[in-house]
Each structure stands twice: as structure tokens, then as C-alpha cells.
Write a structure and sequence with these properties.
Structural class: alpha/beta
Radius of gyration: 18 Å
Strand order of the largest sheet: 3-2-1-4-5-11-10
Shape: globular
Number of strands: 11
Largest sheet: 7 strands, mixed
């Protein structure tokens, strides 16, 4: 799938994508999706500061800041930041322009978080490990790194089949095409208007198994504190389609044991 290597994140998350990203009240912006995530992140941040990797248009950061949590961000796409600025200025939510695997935000944080599968936008294992290490650099001892990520649905692929339809509803079909050799996939989002015309948005990803994610965390000095199937704390099982994993930097006392 050469398409993965040829799609740059800066080109994918362009002005058009930024304008269409927000869907207030529906999809990832639906209250039943967004509110539990903000609740849990606010709980984990406590009285400390939070840093969002790939902050985007502020879907999570804006309501989290409204809860009183000081939030900063790192974001590669300037058009996405421009969309965020229609909701919150730089004094309320400061943002560093850069790659979440390498860019540095000022200060230290109690919480770094990376939601809605976004770590998979990094297309190599080395970049994903670098992302963990970058999170660790930003955290105080005892600080947490939270990742929301889907579980690869390879069990749905019979021999010879390369695509899985993962969601469908009126006016929308979402499917993923897999390259299992390289651990890559491309998500295809088809949206249909009232005339039946389709609009396609594609994004490349490198999928990660939970055990591989845990090893990346260990390489960066984290310990797995908790893993649940969703933001409300549902038990993670072999049938779970996604997970919310909380990693923690050990305190000096814990690390010496």
C-alpha cells in the first residue's frame, strides 16, 4: 500500500479537513462520547496542568479547559489550530506548532493525553516510541500519559480479504484497508449527500496491538496503571474494540523498589 507512505499528515489535515472536522453534537462530538472523556481526563489531571498531543480543533481541550484544567497543546496542522482559535485564544489554550513525537511545550505537566486513535497517525514504530518518550519528558514524577486507541480488527479478515467495514449509518460508510505485512492501514470515510454524491476522506495509520503499546511505554520509563475498554471504565476484554490506557511515570520511591 504505497498510499500510506505518500500521504503526509500536513497535507491530510489541510484547511478543508479542518473546516469539516467539527460536527457539534454528533459523531465524536456527541455528548455521550465527549463528556466521559473530559470527565476522566479532568479526574486524572487533578490540580495539575494537562498537555494534549495533536490537539486539533480543541474537541477535548476546550471543554477540559472550561472545567478549570490548564491545558496546552502540540499540533502539526496550522489549519486545525486556526479552527481551534475560533473557540479559544492563545492565552487560554497555548499551542506549539510541531510533531507530537518531537515538539516541546514549555513547562512540566501532570497529564499528557492523546485521544481518538491519533498515535496511529505516526506511521513507524520508531516514531510511536519517540512519542512515548516525548510524553515522558513533559511529565512530572508520578505524571500520567493517557492513550485512547482502537484494537486492530484483523480477526475479521478472512484469507485474501484486505478491507473491513467498521461503521455504517445513513449517509456514511467507514472502512479500513489493511497491509498486514507493514502493520499499516488506510481509513476511508465515505459521506453521501442528499443527491447520492459521495465525498471521500482518507487517512493512513500504523496500528498497534495493546501488548506492543505496553512495550513502547516501558521503553520510555512508564508503567501501565490501568486499561479499560472506554472512558466510563468498562472492563477491557478479548472482545473489546478499543481501549483507554493510562501509563504513569514512577515516583522516585516507586522506581527504587
Amino acid at each position: 500500500m504505497a498510499i500510506v507512505g505518500s500521504m503526509r499528515q500536513e497535507e491530510i489535515w489541510n484547511a478543508d479537513a479542518a473546516q469539516r472536522y467539527d460536527t457539534p453534537g454528533t459523531g465524536m462530538f456527541a455528548p455521550e462520547v465527549l463528556v466521559p472523556a473530559v470527565d476522566r481526563l479532568a479526574e486524572l489531571a487533578g490540580d495539575g496542568r494537562a498537555l494534549e498531543f495533536a490537539i486539533g480543533t480543541g474537541r477535548v481541550a476546550v471543554p477540559l479547559a472550561e472545567r478549570g484544567v490548564p491545558v496546552s497543546g502540540i499540533e502539526l496542522s496550522r489549519p486545525m489550530i486556526d479552527q481551534l482559535r475560533t473557540k479559544a485564544d492563545a492565552t487560554k489554550i497555548p499551542v506549539v506548532v510541531g510533531d507530537m513525537a518531537t515538539a516541546t511545550a514549555p513547562g512540566k505537566y501532570a497529564l499528557v493525553y492523546l485521544v481518538y486513535n491519533t498515535i496511529s497517525n505516526l506511521l513507524t514504530q520508531a516514531e510511536q516510541v519517540a512519542c512515548f518518550r516525548n510524553a515522558a519528558r513533559h511529565l512530572t514524577p508520578g505524571g500520567r500519559f493517557v492513550i485512547e486507541l482502537w484494537v486492530p480488527e484483523l480477526r475479521k479478515l478472512p484469507p485474501g480479504q484486505e478491507a473491513v467495514v467498521w461503521h455504517r449509518e445513513p449517509g456514511y460508510i467507514g472502512l479500513d484497508t489493511y497491509d498486514v505485512l507493514r502493520q499499516h492501514l488506510v481509513s476511508h470515510h465515505f459521506r453521501f449527500d442528499e443527491s447520492g454524491q459521495a465525498r471521500l476522506f482518507r487517512s493512513p495509520h500504523r496500528y498497534i496491538w495493546p501488548a506492543e503499546l505496553d512495550l513502547m511505554a516501558q521503553l520510555a520509563g512508564f508503567e501501565l496503571e490501568a486499561r479499560r475498554a472506554d472512558w466510563i471504565g468498562t472492563e477491557f476484554t478479548a472482545e473489546s474494540r478499543s481501549h483507554v490506557s493510562v501509563y504513569r511515570i514512577p515516583t522516585a520511591r516507586t522506581a527504587s523498589r
